[in-house]
Structure formats: structure tokens, C-alpha cells
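Help needed: design a sequence for this.
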């Protein structure tokens, strides 16, 4: 038997979430079984647990889009018992049972080795949010962005992606401007490396097709009007990396920033990213992220607490990262 957060759907279509004891035989068929030690609670997990978004595609479901643990059994040539591994994405927690459980059964090709120098807890303090933030930074770097080019905007700054993006960019030498709806968190954001703070209201309302040029680059996890305004105020031949939809899935913009200023909009997907890109991102995280700041970015909870924290994430009441110790 093992403990897991289990989601079922009622006859009325409502999501029913509980902490359950499950027989290990209920794990989905796959070639690698992992004894999970840590998972995380992401915005997408919050949507799944509360039923506020159409995340779950198959019922019943164990949520949790990432996890860290040790291989217990493997029929895959890629892994053997005792290997320390992590997983991010691949539809886990959506179409395939995920990481908010003491065991996970997954395809071997979905796993990567836990990066040297990072503990299981640290990898989940980074988690999918931090890995996504690194993918955004890589996109901006490959565009040609350099620290001397100008200010970089990070929206949704108090969230998991935003917190890690600020920490990464600041350590790499960029002047980071953090956009947040929680001005009381200014000291926290500056402790991560933000040079200045702006109120999200400056970006979240309908705006003009073009605004005053300001940003050399943008990391956006918010979408909607915020993303549109970020594009409209990005400097000539600047770049925007978009990875989230906390404000909405819509994009009420125009072609003006793209054809008049040559702005590039990069869509950043962490779920199905190819393995070489994942390895590059995690290698850079192990090298470039200030691990001393992970403690400030993250908080620890037990598995049962995930049920209460999930709606708090959606309400914008959680800052940084949430690490779930599945044995607590």
C-alpha cells in the first residue's frame, strides 16, 4: 500500500480530491517504478486538485506534474534500481498518474538523472516552475540577449516561475524589474535580485498597440493583457518568453510590436520539451542558480497539506515554490 492524492469526478462533474491509501497494483503499467521522496505543488496541480481548470484528462488521477525519487524496479535499459531520478511534465498528473504519491510508475524515457550537486529536495524546490524559468532564460540567451542590453521584465514575480527567473537573471548579471500585485513582497523580490518593482496594474489592463520602449527581454508567466503590454513595450529587436496563463489564455495584442519593432515572442513549453533541452536546462540550473536562495523561494509541506494549499496557489496567496514531502 502507498499514500497518494487521488482525484475522482462526481456524477455532476465536480472534482473530488482525497488523501488515499492505494494498493501498489493500481499503479499504471510502465517500465520503471520510482519510490518518490519529494514532489511539488504547481499552478497546474492547483487547477487539477480544485477542478478549476480542465487539467485532468483521465479519471481517476493522481496529480503532481513532477517528482524526485529513486528507481525501485526497471525494465528499461536506461535505468536500474537505485538510480536517483527526476521527472517534469510529459502529461504526468494529467493523463498519467503523477508525483503526489509515494510511488510512481512511468516510462523510462520520461526520466532524467538527478543533477549532480542537487538533493532531491532541492530539485523539487526548483521543480517544473524553476525548470520552466530556465527554459525561458535559455530562449532569451539564444535570441542573443546579454546583460548589457537593458532591463529584463519578469511578470508574476512572486510565483514559482517568477521567483526562480529573478534569481537566475540577477545572478547572470541582468537588471531585473519584477511585476507583482503584492507590493508588500518588495523586500522578498529584491532579496532575490530584483533591481526594482512595478505594480502589475501597469500591465494588466487593456493597453495600446505600442508603448514606450523599455524591456530588452521579458519572462512572462501571466498571459492576457499583461503579455500584450509587455510585447508592446519591448525594445527594438527584443524578445519575450511566454510560459504561463495566470491572467488568462487570451492574447489581446496586435502585430505592431512584431512588424514595427522586430520583437520576437517565444512560446516556452516545459511539458513535452525534448530530453537534450531538459538536460541543458537542468545542467544550467545546477551551475547558475544561487542554491542559498532556494530556502527563501520555497516552503515545505506534507502530502495531506497539498489539498489545502492548492486553492491558495490559485488565489495568489503562495509565493515561490511549494515542496511536498510525500512521506510526511
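Sure. Designed sequence:
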Amino acid at each position: 500500500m502507498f499514500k497518494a492524492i487521488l482525484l475522482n469526478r462526481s456524477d455532476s462533474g465536480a472534482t473530488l480530491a482525497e488523501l488515499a491509501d492505494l494498493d501498489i497494483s493500481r499503479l499504471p503499467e510502465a517500465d520503471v517504478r520510482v519510490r518518490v521522496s519529494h514532489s511539488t505543488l504547481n499552478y497546474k496541480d492547483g487547477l487539477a486538485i480544485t477542478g478549476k481548470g480542465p487539467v485532468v484528462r483521465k479519471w481517476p488521477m493522481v496529480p503532481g506534474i513532477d517528482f524526485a525519487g529513486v528507481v525501485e524496479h526497471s525494465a528499461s535499459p536506461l535505468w536500474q534500481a537505485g538510480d536517483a531520478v527526476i521527472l517534469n511534465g510529459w502529461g504526468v498528473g494529467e493523463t498519467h498518474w503523477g508525483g503526489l504519491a509515494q510511488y510512481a510508475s512511468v516510462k523510462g524515457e520520461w526520466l532524467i538523472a538527478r543533477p549532480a550537486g542537487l538533493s532531491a529536495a532541492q530539485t523539487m524546490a526548483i521543480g517544473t516552475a524553476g525548470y520552466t524559468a530556465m527554459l525561458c532564460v535559455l530562449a532569451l540567451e539564444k535570441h542573443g540577449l546579454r546583460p548589457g542590453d537593458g532591463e529584463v521584465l519578469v511578470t508574476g514575480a512572486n510565483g514559482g516561475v517568477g521567483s526562480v527567473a529573478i534569481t537566475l537573471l540577477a545572478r547572470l548579471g541582468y537588471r531585473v524589474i519584477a511585476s507583482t500585485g503584492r507590493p508588500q513582497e518588495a523586500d522578498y523580490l529584491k532579496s532575490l535580485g530584483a533591481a526594482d518593482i512595478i505594480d502589475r496594474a501597469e500591465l494588466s489592463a487593456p493597453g495600446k498597440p505600442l508603448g514606450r520602449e523599455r524591456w530588452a527581454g521579458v519572462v512572462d508567466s501571466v498571459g492576457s493583457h499583461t503579455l500584450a503590454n509587455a510585447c508592446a513595450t519591448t525594445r527594438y529587436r527584443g524578445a519575450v518568453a511566454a510560459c504561463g496563463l495566470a491572467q488568462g489564455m487570451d492574447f489581446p495584442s496586435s502585430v505592431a510590436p512584431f512588424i514595427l519593432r522586430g520583437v520576437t515572442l517565444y512560446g516556452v513549453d516545459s511539458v513535452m520539451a525534448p530530453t537534450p533541452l531538459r538536460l541543458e536546462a537542468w545542467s544550467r540550473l545546477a551551475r547558475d542558480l544561487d542554491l542559498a536562495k532556494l530556502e527563501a523561494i520555497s516552503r515545505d509541506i506534507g502530502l495531506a497539506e497539498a489539498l489545502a494549499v492548492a486553492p491558495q496557489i490559485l488565489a495568489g496567496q503562495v509565493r515561490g515554490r511549494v515542496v511536498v514531502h510525500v512521506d510526511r
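The longest strand covers residues 32-40.
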